[in-house]
Amino acid sequence: MSLSKEQKGWLVVGIVLHKTVAPVLRCFVEQEVTKLYNHYDNTFNLKTLQLNQVSADPELKSLSFRNINDNHLVPNKKNYNYHIYSPLDLAKLYLTPNVAKCISGFDESLDTSAILVLLGSKVSLLTKVHHTSPSHFALIQRLADDVRENVRNEWGHYDSTKWTETFFSDCFDKLRKLVSNLGLKDGGKTTLDELDEYKTKGKHILNVI
User: Fold this and answer.
1) What CA–CA distance (Å, rounded) separates 50 from 105?
2) From CA 132, how far away is CA 23, in angstroms rounded?
3) Which domain, by its residues, includes 176?
4) Read out DSSP for 69-90?
5) Residue-wise burial string across 34-47, b where 16 or more C-beta atoms lie within 10 A, e elsewhere
6) How far is the C-alpha of 128 from the C-alpha of 134, rounded, in Å?
7) Using CA atoms in the order 142, 148, 154, 157, what is the torsion angle rounded to 10 degrees?
8) Closest listed residue to residue 174, CA positions, set 28, 3, 25
9) Count helices and strands in the chain by DSSP H and E runs
């Protein structure tokens, strides 16, 4: 079975997106959500959070408490269990119900699309903790939005006419920019090197499989 060059490019980007980049982003999300959980917990004691506290705080009030504690089975929001027991529970509050119900941990159940939503400007997790460099986290949000819209979503809705060599190269550039701005140890060199290797050799590897 032969593959077109467009199909090979699509497959290689899918591999690096899910195998190389997603684990790095997942660790970063876990780190940042944990910071946010501790930030809220210092104010509210999240494990005993009550409706009146949620109602009085604009940020908490905007979250989807339907996504935790089997609250989707409770018809009246006044009777929800508002306790947030873990950073994972907190992360679920920022996602749609259909996505949140599939997540069992900061593992592969937290897929690439959900990771990028949590990092992006729509959710703005990164602006809710008092970081020393808000402009840096605003940049991460913009880069995550770019990857979600122009790499992950394009990959998820394959159109052979788009997968030119230029588009293939642009996907790697967008992934590199996001990873390199996370502030990883050694600047994420191991991940960036792997991205470069897949960019230059990935299609050839598919030829010999």
Assistant:
1) 24
2) 25
3) 5-208
4) TTGGG-S-GGG------SHHHH
5) bbbbeebeeebebe
6) 10
7) -150
8) 25
9) 11, 0
Question: pLDDT per residue over 79-128, tens digit each?
Answer: 999 999 999 999 999 999 999 999 999 999 999 999 999 999 888 777 77
Specify the number of domains making up the chain.
1
Tokens 């470069």 sit at which residue?
A: 196
Q: What is the pTM of this model?
A: 0.92
Amino acid identity of 62?
S
Torsion sign (Cα): 15, 122, 130, 173: positive
pLDDT tens digits, one per residue of 134-171: 888 899 999 999 999 999 999 999 999 999 999 999 99
Contacts of 13 (CB under 8 A, 6+ apart): 151, 155, 168, 171, 172
The residues, ordered by sequence, that sit 6+ positions from 108 with a Cβ below 8 Å of its Cβ are none
Write out the two tokens for 162: 């788009």
Q: Euclidean distance between the first and final Cα of the chain, in Å?
A: 11
Tokens 């991940």, located at residue? 191
> Is residue 38 within a helix (H) or strand (E), and if so which, with residue range?
helix 22-44
Which tokens in the block code for residue 93? 């509050």
Q: Is 159 helix (H, G, I), strand (E, B) or coil?
A: coil
**Looking at residue 66, what DSSP letter applies?**
G
The backbone torsions φ and ψ at residue 69, rounded to the nearest 5 degrees and listed phi first, read 55, 30
